[in-house]
Amino acid sequence: MNDEGFRLSWRSIGILAAVAAVILAASLFVALRTPDAAPASGPYPDLILQGKLTQRIPWSRLPVSVTWDGTKAGAIPTDLKAVYRGQTLYKLIGLVDDRDPGSFNVALARKGYKIRFLASDGYSWDMSSREIIGRTGWILARLKNGKPLPANEGPYRDVGPFIRHFFGRESVKLITRIKLIY
């Protein structure tokens, strides 16, 4: 190998090392500046959504932009007479129902598939995808009266206007995973 070829190799190694250092520094900067970057082993586990795609949503990142007011719901159990905040179920399902995480696939939902809620205590409950079409009030909540759900309800709970003279099946508490079964 001649002297010129050797110099070119060392120059290439130097450029690669500099690029790697910049990438490492940038990723460390982003990691340190990202709020709520707590590990899943923290007090609130991630929500797992499984369908055609799989999504893991940290507790603190689940939006709380939708409210269901259980204080106005009529004849329901007193522990549900509270203001719950979370995200609409159809928006969460839309993240994993097909290969397009940007929207809820209404045509697929009309054909029908099961939405299975899985709770940390082993309880599970299925509902049909047809039931949530156009239902913006059905939410997966993570807050109750502005605070995290209590340990006997959370980390997530399915609530909404479907709760009427109910026996507990539909308002699943302790949810950790939602799975779509086609």
Explain the overall architecture:
It is a single chain. Mean pLDDT is 82; it is low at 28-41. This protein is 24% helix and 26% strand. Strand 5 and strand 6 form a beta hairpin. It is built from 3 helices and 10 strands. It starts with a helix and ends with a strand. The longest helix is centred in the first third of the chain and has 31 residues, at 3-33. The protein has helices at 3-33, 89-94, 106-111; strands at 47-50, 54-57, 66-69, 83-88, 114-119, 124-128, 139-144, 147-148, 157-159, 175-181. The chain is of the alpha+beta class and 182 residues long. It has a 5-stranded mixed β-sheet with strand order 2-1-10-5-6, with no helix packed on it. Strands 3, 4, 7, 8 and 9 form a 5-stranded antiparallel β-sheet that branches. The protein folds into 2 domains: 1-34; 47-181, Alpha-Beta Complex (Sulfite Oxidase, Chain A, domain 2), CATH 3.90.420.10.
What's this, in brief?
The protein has 182 residues and is of the alpha+beta class.
Low-confidence stretches: 28-41
What is the domain tally?
A: 2
CATH architecture of the largest domain: Alpha-Beta Complex
Backbone shape: globular
Give the full name of the CATH homologous superfamily of the largest domain.
Oxidoreductase, molybdopterin-binding domain
Structural class: alpha+beta
Read across the widest sheet, the strand sequence of neighbours is 2-1-10-5-6
Count of discrete alpha- or pi-helical segments spanning 4 or more residues = 3
Radius of gyration: 23 Å
H/E element order: HEEEEHHEEEEEE
Main beta sheet? 5 strands, mixed
If you consult CATH, what is the topology of the largest domain? Answer: Sulfite Oxidase, Chain A, domain 2
Proportion of β residues?
Answer: 25-35%
> What share of the residues lie within helices?
10-25%
The number of distinct β-strands equals 10
The CATH first-level class of the largest domain comes to Alpha Beta
> Distance between termini?
62 Å
Average pLDDT level: 82
